[in-house]
Amino acid sequence: MASAELQGKYQKLAQEYSKLRAQNQVLKKGVVDEQANSAALKEQLKMKDQSLRKLQQEMDSLTFRNLQLAKRVELLQDELSLSEPRGKKNKKSGESSSQLSQEQKSVFDEDLQKKIEENERLHIQFFEANEQHKHVEAELRSRLAALETEAAQHQAVVDGLTRKYMETIEKLQNDKAKLEVKSQTLEKEAKECRLRTEECQLQLKNLHEDLSGRLEESLSVINEKVPFNDTKYSQYNALNVPLHNRRHQLKMRDIAGQALAFVQDLVTALLNFHTYTEQRIQIFPVDSAIDTISPLNQKFSQYLHENASYVRPLEEGMLHLFESITEDTVTVLETTVKLKTFSEHLTSYICFLRKILPYQLKSLEEECESSLCTSALRARNLELSQDMKKMTAVFEKLQTYVALLALPSTEPDGLLRTNYSSVLTNVGAALHGFHDVMKDISKHYSQKATIEHELPTTTQKLITTNDCILSSVVALTNGAGKIASFYSNNVDYFIASLSYGPKAASGFISPLSAECMLQYKKKAAAYMKSLRKPLLESVPYEEALSNRRVLLSSTESREGLAQQVQQSLEKISKLEQEKEHWMLEAQLAKIKLEKENQRIADKLKSTSSGQLVGLSQDNAALSNAAGQDEAAAKAVPEPVQSTSLIGILTRTSDSEVPDVESREDLIKNHYMARIVELTSQLQLADSKSVHFYAECRALSKRLALAEKSKEALTEEMKLASQNITRLQDELTTTKRSYEDQLSMMSDHLCSMNETLSKQREEIDTLKMSSKGNSKKNKSR
């Protein structure tokens, strides 16, 4: 096979090489033709250069001739100018001579006109010839450059092909050497495989004989000893207790615990979202503290106030589902009865969402119709209304799949076992859709909050409420993302765990059979526990000796211990006396502190009354003359101070006295600003307290669950330690039994060897006796 493959490869390579050689020859011919064309073009270029030089010489001669004619024309014009004045003087005498000069002038003019026309014609011919020569020269030069580039490209192609041919030849030679080595190794491996196949055939024959013997034996045992095969019928097989898979149960409980934590976070976020939405309705677009809100928003607020009665049961249903999954149960869809209650709670929450959805949409429309709503805010409200519809639809889809998963534990005919995996995958898709919808809601609500914060009429109460709603939406988004990723990570395990059930069957037939199986499992576990007799704990001998020594030493030092107890009692009585003394001192100090505080308060009251007297004197001084004003200033030479919530008011004689009305306005403005600040702080503190209360409640529940899990783990550790001790005891007993069996087998083998040796001796004696008899018969 390897040689045939090598020959095929070589044939292919030879064909390619022949093709490449033919292409190389064609390319060489093309290069030679192009070189010949370039040489012919060079000769044509030389001929054109020669013709150009001739034309240039003719041009030079013509220019020289033109110069001569121009000089002659100038001379004739000079002569004509000189002859004109002479002709005027001798008009009468020179009429004949003038006629002669006119004839000569006309002849000269005709000759000059002919020369000028000839010169113009020659100029035109020269210009046309020069332009044609330049055009031809440019074409030839461009063609020559193109041919040179083509020749260079062809030469590069030829060089590349030769290089490629050399590389392919070297590569083929290397491949040939490698294939030869590979063929040798393959031949060796083929020989080894033949030997292995022969050995495997022998082993297969032996195993077939052994298994056929075992099969006959097991069939005979089954036919003789088994009166009834309960695995033959699925109805009876569903009642059999499957093998206990502790790892599977612990994994399912761990997954359920993680799901419970995620659901608790989601429930907290939903509660905050509905609660803060209710607060926002009371504030925007109409503040309920200033004016009455619309009947629609009142109804919507009333419904939102009932959100806890629909959201809290989700956490309780998940908690019951988590508590139903224990180490002793068998967790499949047919046995998870508590999933039905969780589905019912989810259905009630879906009904709540359907009930509040139209009110929510109408509330957003009312916000859009208000005068404070801008076009950008209206667009965000429309996007939020679409997101709320999508959120309700996603919850309905999720509730449909959860209800389908709850059917096997209540109505086995409602969902076929073949559809379990598709329903589980669809649950994951619905969770991812919920996460995407929450991301859109978070994005659009953050944009809406930023637009509302930029409005001039936005109050601090609305800003804090928007921030709280945005934080709850972000918590919802994070919770949905965690649940979706957690479910997608464990969906393969859920699908694989569907096969967990009775042996040789497709699964549990009905919830009733699953319940009966769990009861049988509990009875079997109780029976096995009753059979297990734990060993009484005994004190080791060395520890008992050490305890006896300690006891003896303690009896010897009893008197010393009694003295120490007496001294400690005396010290305790002294410390109690000192405690009473210092308690009395503390009470006296407290009384002194109260008196000092009372004295300071009285002093502050007196200073405030002094300030009021000073203010009345200032008013009187403003109405009196300047002298009376100086007397009032001398009567109160020191500044008067007043401490209160608005700060310290100080008045001196040098500063100007403000009016009573301006002072009252300042105090009023300061108190109003203080009231606004305190109300905002109070609202923020209320929202934080609600959030902290929810977090503390969730943490307390988590702590209780953690303590329960800790107790369960301690119990499991105790059971595991007991199982370890039991297994160690069983191991020792099995070792002893195996040792006893081995000793018995060795004794049996020894006895068999002895019997065999005796039988051999008897056979030898019989042979000797038979030989002796045969000799006697021969002698006879």
UniProtKB/TrEMBL annotation:
Q: Where is the Protein phosphatase 1 regulatory subunit 21 N-terminal domain?
A: 11-112
Q: Does the keyword Coiled coil apply?
A: yes
InterPro entries annotated for this entry? PPP1R21, PPP1R21_C, PPP1R21_N, PPP1R21_six_helix
User: Which SMART domains did the record assign?
Assistant: KLRAQ
Q: Which UniProt keywords apply?
A: Coiled coil, Endosome, RNA-binding
**Positions in coiled-coil regions:** 3-72, 130-196, 558-592, 696-730
In terms of superkingdom, the source organism counts as Eukaryota
Q: Which GO terms describe its molecular function?
A: RNA binding
Tell me yes or no: is RNA-binding among this UniProt entry's keywords: yes
Q: Name one Pfam family in it.
A: PPP1R21_C
Q: Where is this region: Disordered?
A: 81-104, 760-780
Q: What is the annotated localization of this protein?
A: Early endosome
Q: Which GO terms describe its cellular component?
A: early endosome; membrane
| Compositional bias of kind Low complexity | 95-104
- Which PANTHER family does the UniProt record give? PROTEIN PHOSPHATASE 1 REGULATORY SUBUNIT 21 (PTHR21448:SF0), SMOOTH MUSCLE MYOSIN HEAVY CHAIN-RELATED (PTHR21448)
Q: Supply the name of the protein.
A: Protein phosphatase 1 regulatory subunit 21
Q: Which organism is it from?
A: Microcebus murinus
Q: What is the lineage of its organism?
A: Eukaryota, Metazoa, Chordata, Craniata, Vertebrata
Q: Which gene encodes it?
A: PPP1R21
